[in-house]
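RETRY 2/3 - previous attempt timed out on the joint model. Re-submitting the same 337-residue input unchanged.
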Amino acid sequence: MFGQNNQNAKENRTLFRHLLSLNLLSSPGSGKTTLIERLLQDLDLITKHPDRPILAGVIVGDLATDHDAEKLRKTGTPTIQINTGNLCHLEAAGVAKAAQQLDLAALDLLIIENVGNLVCPALYDLGEDLRIVVMSVTEGEDKPLKYPATFKSADAVVISKCDIAAAVGFNRAGTMAYLSQVVPQAQVFEVSAKTGEGLGPFYGYLKQVMGSHQARAESYLLQT
Amino acid sequence: MHEVGLMQSALALAVEQTKSQGLSKIHSIDLNVGELSGVVPEALKFAFEVVSVGTLAEGAQLNLNVVHTLCYCRHCCREFYPMSWIYKCPRCQCLSSDIREGQNLELVSLEMS
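RETRY 2/3 succeeded.
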């Protein structure tokens, strides 16, 4: 019954094969938009070819308003807002439609910010290369246990707002223990988009994935 | 939350199948519901009652078969059913992220006339 969405996701994967696509999932207010904003300002740090800047595009999903898109457009990045109305997640077809408004062929990086929700978005493949789950230090350490389907589907987990970890009594050891049990395959990054703390390793990871992705895309182009 | 949409697509599939065989009534629908599919069986039943009204499946029986999560341990080269959300192999205690069953939602059979 996820067949139609899975089929659409497969088509998106073909459409996105030359770029790196990210699907960001989190609870509302975990700092997805701020993290994306920072990443868009720091794109030079993830490029392998300093002479050629990375071109990014963003698709952002919210039930209502285009506040996030407005915020992200200020970084100069083309951003398409999807208003899902009452729908609690993005679906592959909606993403494909939004992507038509971007100059996809020119992009190296496509960031999809899903609707803030840790339940339904996990079930809908959007055709992304990497699924990144964001949780902030203000959330309980057992969040991965409470929303296992979402965390289990993650390629990477970003713990955000680390600059206020001490003030909010973040249980780091507990969070790390639950993450390693629930989502053993994921790389975990502790960052603060505000101070820049910990972003180096996260960017290093994106750079590495992007590099291997580009190599794959180039070899694909050579074959065809 | 998304059960209504999923039920609508299941029902569309069922109706299409029924019509393609030249039949006009659905008596029962069997669905496999994976533990990890993120779907609540009760919500699916409720959604079915709502969306089946006025269709070939109105009044049909909806049977939901829960499919447990099945993992694969790469160290033991064996499959196992995890006891909790922490997928620990009962033999070697290693954690697995290789899920083999329990993620899908499938329409498995229909009784039609």
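The longest strand of chain B covers residues 26-34. Closing ticket.
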